[in-house]
Amino acid sequence: MKKIRGGVTAPRGFSAGGVFCGIKASRKKDLMLVVSDGPCAAGGVFTTNRVRAHCVERNLRLLRNRPAARAVIANSGNANCLTGPSGRRHTEMMAKAAADALGIGEDEVLVASTGVIGKRLPIERLMRSVPDLVSGLRPNPAGNQAAAQAILTTDTVIKEMAVKLGISGRTVRIGAIAKGSGMIHPEMTPDGLRHATMLCFITTDAVISPDVLQRSLEKAIRRSFNMISVDGDMSTNDMVLLLANAKAKNRPIREKSAEEAAFTRALGAICLHLAKAMVRDGEGATKFVEIQIKGARSEADAREAGLTVASSSLVKTALFGCDPNWGRLAASVGTADVEMNPAKLQVKLGRHWVLSGNRVVKQKKAELARLFRRKNIKITLDLGAGRCGATVWTSDLSTQYVRINSAYRT
Amino acid sequence: MKKIRGGVTAPRGFSAGGVFCGIKASRKKDLMLVVSDGPCAAGGVFTTNRVRAHCVERNLRLLRNRPAARAVIANSGNANCLTGPSGRRHTEMMAKAAADALGIGEDEVLVASTGVIGKRLPIERLMRSVPDLVSGLRPNPAGNQAAAQAILTTDTVIKEMAVKLGISGRTVRIGAIAKGSGMIHPEMTPDGLRHATMLCFITTDAVISPDVLQRSLEKAIRRSFNMISVDGDMSTNDMVLLLANAKAKNRPIREKSAEEAAFTRALGAICLHLAKAMVRDGEGATKFVEIQIKGARSEADAREAGLTVASSSLVKTALFGCDPNWGRLAASVGTADVEMNPAKLQVKLGRHWVLSGNRVVKQKKAELARLFRRKNIKITLDLGAGRCGATVWTSDLSTQYVRINSAYRT
To answer: Given an 8 Å threshold on Cβ–Cβ distance, is A401 in contact with B313?
Structure first.
């Protein structure tokens, strides 16, 4: 596996573009399109929020039958969620406008939206911009850059990655773009049953069946997007979409094969890179924190414990204050609804155990203080209840986070 | 029921006091004692955090057998939690010091602590202050004031209330003091099985058996302390203790009697007043928000939905920004693990429905903006899934909250 340039346009046969269609007051790009030259196997995972945007409902319905897909159209600045029957119609109109301009079927177009909830999408302006969007499609890094910009909301940087790997003697490429900075606490499943707005669109030229593709995606997001939290708030619009157009002409990647493992590993590396990029670009974030949970009964328990700590306002404000306040870590993990042995609880800050065997381990205060002044902090918590673990990533809660989100007007 | 002066010293036969014993750097009062002239029936509810302070463990053990109790000793500034076997010994020493100075049994003294976790209690200084504490006990409002001050941490005001009511021809008094400003998201049960540091000590001169007293307390906290959240973080030390010394000489309050109902109503009113006082004094709070959940399958579902919304950083920062961003309310309630019908979700801000029948109800922007500039805000969410409801209370998430909690050094 080797990192390459190009994001979603790195794999053969994909082009992308982005324009300003009239949603964002800043007049920045707010509408993007990713298109494959030929039909693709498609996979997706979606928010598990019970309140879901129309685009999530539509993609879920389309992908249920593992159809061929060709394109993804997405807007930013408006989530088109809780906008009633007209909002549902607008999602359909976005798909149809892209399909018509590209000369493909409506059902071959997947739709995504991100932004304010409960506000009518300016669909007329959006539709009028689709011809420009299509004529601006580019197969090179320029197309990818424009698309990556057009999905941003409060993000301060674009998020992209692409890799190539060898599969059955052929070079397979995987590329992706993503957005996400606030309302980040994803828990996505293939049926969107239960958690951020984060969007990630992944393309690959691999030959792979829709079923194998979907399972590979589910594995890839498990230890990446589903292991991060910026602010503990899950969005109504989260989704990861994956299109595979088979242009690499490798032998089809079969289930449980070495090729599938290699492909999933590469996909997982892309997802983890982008998930971490979201946390680094988290709204108001001044810290990048890795929380490792050990001694859990199950990986699910470890994830729950990690995300509970990552969601604690008291833990996050202590991190912002560079305060090695491990008591808050212990108090917070104690509220997680998982098996634990409080008498065996252990807490490690960086390489220093501060609580071990229910006893406070004396530390040089200056050393811990220095550790917590760094941007990157690693915390380990051992629940003393089993042999499973998980790693989650989070940012701190800063005065800037509050400013961003109290000024973000509807 | 009539409000009276005096807090915990309002009921006959109770005295209280508070001194500075050497824990707080500010040199403010940090050790308090509430004592009854005679033996009391005692009840209590405790944090459900799996990580619990030694004082919680000790009170749980003592109260299991419904013993007679006489006194409560409590310190602030140090939670004496995760302090190992020496910490456990220090809790016992606090009880013994009070018992010796008062000439009562060790097991008649209940202990509470609040403050920093994982730090050794300066037990020598604390013990040396107990004689002064005992000699300063007063039965009048002065004793109550000193005790109420000595349990405060980040609180800006003392919290107290007392009432009197007629029971079987006699006047029964109930009085209480409480503290709580941050780490407030209580879920207390009689066995401390599962959620803030909040402390509340209640006294009464009613004649009531320990069992009836305990059940009455459990009912009283259900729709008060267990329905508030300041920052979503549950403490390791939360507790409510209730002592009844029978000095009112009423006929014993029997289970399921009209007297029990009246007593529980009065107790509930005190708990609700103090719970709301904690939210109003929430760390950095600029808003007092009532969230009413309707249309839930059960009251437990309604509580869970309400506390989920009350714990959302995006909802709380919008409130701080005076932003009627109801989309965040809907997105947040959608993540609650309860039955709901998203298509029937309804949202009301003050008296204005903004989402009804999954359609946005047009509003005058200026009116909603005016509504959200007020200090007191009422929000109603109808889940469309049943006929049950609950009301929770919360504060906003301000830049000041972040400052307080990033500067609060271990």
So the answer is: yes
- Return the pLDDT at B189: 66
**In the 8-state DSSP scheme, what is residue A251?**
P
SS3 (DSSP) at A202: strand
Coil, strand or helix at B356: strand
Spatial distance between the Cα atoms of A294 and A296, rounded to a whole number of angstroms:
6
* Residues A316-330 pLDDT 10s: 999 999 999 998 999
Query: Is the separation of the CB atoms in A4 and A162 below 8 Å?
Result: yes
* Tokens 């800050």, located at residue: A349
Is pTM beyond 0.80? Reply is: yes
Cβ within 8 Å of residue B346, ≥6 positions away: B295, B353, B355, B356, B357, B380, B381, B382, B384
Mean pLDDT in residue range A252-259: 96
CB-nearest partner of B398 from A331, A345, A402? A402
pLDDT at A109: 97
CA dist., res. B272 & res. A192, Å (int)? 39
Restricting to A residues 261-300, those with a Cβ less than 8 Å away from any Cβ of B are none
| Whole-number Å distance between alpha carbons of A168 and B275 | 66
Contact A119 B327 (CB under 8 A): yes
Among the residue ranges A87-91, A126-130, B246-250, B333-337, the one predicted with the least confidence is B333-337
Query: What mean pLDDT, rounded, does chain B reach?
Result: 92
Q: Which residue of B has its CA nearest to A330?
A: B51
In the residue annotation, A380 being an active-site residue is answered as no
